[in-house]
Structures are given as C-alpha cells and as structure tokens.
Automatic annotation (TrEMBL):
<keyword id="KW-1133">Transmembrane helix</keyword>
<keyword id="KW-0472">Membrane</keyword>
<feature type="transmembrane region" description="Helical">
    <location>
        <begin position="6"/>
        <end position="25"/>
    </location>
</feature>
<keyword id="KW-0812">Transmembrane</keyword>
<feature type="transmembrane region" description="Helical">
    <location>
        <begin position="78"/>
        <end position="98"/>
    </location>
</feature>
<feature type="transmembrane region" description="Helical">
    <location>
        <begin position="110"/>
        <end position="131"/>
    </location>
</feature>
<feature type="transmembrane region" description="Helical">
    <location>
        <begin position="37"/>
        <end position="58"/>
    </location>
</feature>
<protein>
    <recommendedName>
        <fullName>Cytochrome B</fullName>
    </recommendedName>
</protein>
Length: 140
C-alpha cells in the first residue's frame, strides 16, 4: 500500500499538471471545456485518497503516532496531521472544482473554474508532500 501510495503520488502530480496545461490551452484558445480531461485528475485524486486513508490506519507513522507528545515532534506531526489534512483539503478542492465546472454552460467560465481549483490544490499538495524524494518507497 505504501508503494502504491508513492506511485499514485507521481501519477497524480503528472495528471494535475497535464489537466492544468490542457485546460489553460482551452481557456486561452477559447475552446470548449474538456470534462473528460478534468475527470482524469478527479479519479486519480480519489484513488489516492482511498489508498492514503488505508496507509493512515495501517502505518506506524499515521494514526498510531497521533499523540500530544508527538505534536511537538515536527517529523511525526507531518505524517499524522499536516500531510493527511492538507491532502484531504486539496482533494476536496479538486472535487468542488470538477463538480462546479460540470454544471457551468459557458466554456470560458468552466475552464476558468477548473483552473482555479486545480491550481490551488496542486500548490497545497506540493506544500505538504514528503520531500526528500529519495525516501519514497517507489525509489527504493
Ligand atoms: C473515500 C473515498 C471517496 C470519497 C469520499 C469520494 C467522494 C466523492 C464525491 C463527494 C463526489 C461528488 C462529485 C460531484 O458532485 O459530482 C465524487 C465523485 C466521483 N468520484 Fe469519488 N470519492 C471516493 C472514492 C473514489 C474512488 C475510489 C473513485 C474511482 C477510482 C472515485 C471516482 C469518482 C468519480 C468518477 C466521480 C464522479 C464523476 C462525475 O460526476 O462525473 N471516487 N466522489
Ligand atoms: C494528494 C494526495 C497525496 C499525495 C500526493 C501523497 C503522497 C505521499 C508520499 C509521496 C508519501 C511517501 C511515501 C513513502 O515514503 O514511500 C506519503 C506518505 C504517507 N501518506 Fe500520503 N499522499 C497523499 C494523500 C494522503 C492522504 C489523504 C493520507 C491519509 C488520509 C495520506 C497518508 C500518508 C501517510 C500516513 C504516509 C506515511 C506512510 C509511511 O511511510 O508509513 N496521504 N504520501
């Protein structure tokens, strides 16, 4: 599951960047909103949420280390609180952005809505991803 979680992390980052670039092109090119492209980001994010929750309840770094004493330990707090919380907020933003755009008839506005929500989500994800990358199980 940890391996899957690190693999999906890379797939999700790549998916978000691709969705943002294609939607940017559609926005500036005054083209139709491409819901299927935005859906790639949504599905990858939801998959990562499920896998992340499983890792959270099974890994020693997740719920198991949630304690008042560990709050003072930055490296522990990162995994049992900051990382999961920020990622869940980002995934909620992606879901809201996708959902809102689906109902917008004006292509320019739909593209713009997905762009705003997905770009903020990407920034939040990048802010709480566990660097250094060398420790990811996919690279070991
Ligand atoms: C903890 C698990 C999950 C939660 C809480 C969750 C939550 C949600 C929510 C709230 C929506 C509503 C979006 C809307 O208003 O249209 C949604 C839509 C969706 N989710 Fe999830 N989801 C989860 C897991 C998954 C998984 C595992 C997948 C697939 C691999 C998935 C795929 C989708 C798809 C395809 C849509 C809607 C697409 C559409 O409306 O066109 N979700 N999810
Ligand atoms: C945007 C979504 C997410 C991304 C990109 C992401 C990325 C990562 C990465 C790269 C790691 C390091 C894995 C390793 O050391 O091999 C990690 C670890 C972890 N993640 Fe996530 N994550 C996401 C969402 C979540 C969520 C939603 C949860 C929990 C609710 C979660 C819980 C954890 C935990 C507990 C660990 C530590 C696992 C361990 O080494 O024992 N993650 N995450």
């Amino acid at each position: 599951m940890k391996h899957l979680h690190s693999t999906l992390a890379i797939i999700l980052l790549a998916a978000l960047i691709i969705v943002i670039l294609i939607t940017l092109a559609n926005y500036f090119g005054n083209k139709a909103y491409n819901r299927k492209i935005a859906l790639i980001g949504l599905i990858t994010a939801h998959l990562q949420l499920v896998v992340g929750l499983i890792v959270y309840f099974t890994s020693g770094l997740g719920l198991a280390s949630f304690s008042g004493a560990n709050m003072k330990v930055a490296s522990s707090r990162f995994y049992f609180l900051e990382h999961p919380l920020m990622m869940i907020i980002a995934i909620i933003l992606i879901t809201i952005g996708y959902s809102k755009s689906k109902k917008i008839l004006d292509a320019k506005k739909a593209n713009q809505t997905v762009l705003i929500f997905y770009i903020i989500a990407l920034i939040l994800i990048l802010s709480r991803i566990p660097y250094p990358v060398g420790s990811w199980s996919i690279f070991n």
